[in-house]
Amino acid sequence: MEIPYTYKARPDTGLYNAKVGIWLFLASEIMLFGALFSAYILLRVSAPVGFWPDVALAWPRGLLNIPIGTFNTAVLITSSVTVVLAWAALKMNNFARFRVYMVITVLCAFAFLGIKSFEYNDKFSHYVIRLQDGKALTGHIEVDGKHPRFWNFSDQWSVAKLADKKVTKIKVEMDPERDVNGHLKKGASHHHEVEVAVSDIVSMGSYTPATHPFFAVYFLITALHGLHVLGGALVLGYFAFPGAKMWKSNPEQFINRIEVGGLFWHFVDLVWIFLFPVVYLL
Q: Domain coordinates of the chain in residue numbers?
C-alpha cells in the first residue's frame, strides 16, 4: 500500500506530507527559541546598572569575540547558499554537483562547531576572582604553571581546590580595562600579570553558567543551537551518501527530502542571525 502525498502535493494545500510536518516542527522550534530569547531580554533589562564584575549582577559587556562571531555568521550563511544549490542541482538532474554542494554544507557546519568550541574553551579558561578588599579581577589564570582548559575539567580551580593543593599564590593575566559599555579604555592592555595570594581570595570561578545569568543563558542558547547544527549536518550528510540511494528508486521523493532538510537548515541559520546581534552586539 502506497502512502499518498509522499512526493506529490495535495491538490487542496499544494503541500506534500513532509513539508507539512517540517512546518509544524519548525513552529514548535520557534516557540522554544522564542522563550529563550525572551528570558535573555528580560534578564538583561532587569539587571542592575554598572560594570560587571565590579557590580555583581550587572550585565557583562564586551566578553564575546565579535570578529569570530562575524566569521561564524558568514560560515552559516554560506552553508545556506550551498544547501539551496544542492537542491537546485537535483532539480537539474545533476547528482554529482548536488553531492559537492552538500559536502560543502556539512563542512561549513562542522567548521562552525569547531569555531564555537574555541569560544567555549576561552570562556571556561577565563576567571573572575573576588578579593577580600572588594575588588574583582578578571583574566586567565596560571596555577603551578598550568592553565585551565575546557577539555579537561580537572584543571578547573576553586578556592577550596587551591587550599587542598596547598597553593599559596596564583598568577592572573589581567583583562584590559573597559568602560561601563564594555568598550576598551584608551591605551588599555592585558599584557601584564599580577600575583594574587590565595588567602586574599573570597571566591573565584570560570565563565560558566554558575558564575552569572548571562553565561547561563549564553551557554544554553548557543549549545542548543549547536545541537541543531550537529543534527542537521548529520542528516544532510546522510542524504549526501547512504540516503542517496533513493535518487535512483524515487528521485522526486528524494528531492523533496532535500527540500525539507534545507528548510530545517535555513531555520538553524535564521536562529543564529537573530542570536548573533542580540547576544554579541547589543
A: 17-122+212-281, 126-206
DSSP labels, the chain: -PPTTSSSPPTTTS--HHHHHHHHHHHHHHHHHHHHHHHHHHHHHTSPSS-TTTSTTSPP-S-S-HHHHHHHHHHHHHHHHHHHHHHHHHHTT-HHHHHHHHHHHHHHHHHHHHHHHHHHHHHHTEEEEEETTS-EEEEEEEBTTB--BTTBGGG---HHHHHHTT--EEEEEEPPPB-TTSPBPTT-----EEEEEGGGEEEEEESSTTT-HHHHHHHHHHHHHHHHHHHHHHHHHHHHTGGGGHHHH-HHHHHHHHHHHHHHHHHHHHHHHHHIIIIII-
Q: State the Cα–Cα distance between residues 61 and 46, nearest whole angstrom.
A: 15
Tell me the per-residue pLDDT of 4-15, one tens digit each, with 9 for 90 and over. Answer: 777 677 777 777
- Give residue 144's pLDDT: 84
Q: What is the pLDDT of residue 259?
A: 95
| 17-122+212-281 classified as CATH 1.20.120.80 | yes
Which residues fall within 8 angstroms of residue 23, CB to CB, at 6 or more apart?
263
Low-confidence ranges of the chain (pLDDT < 50): none
| Per-residue pLDDT at 43 | 94
pLDDT of residue 34: 96
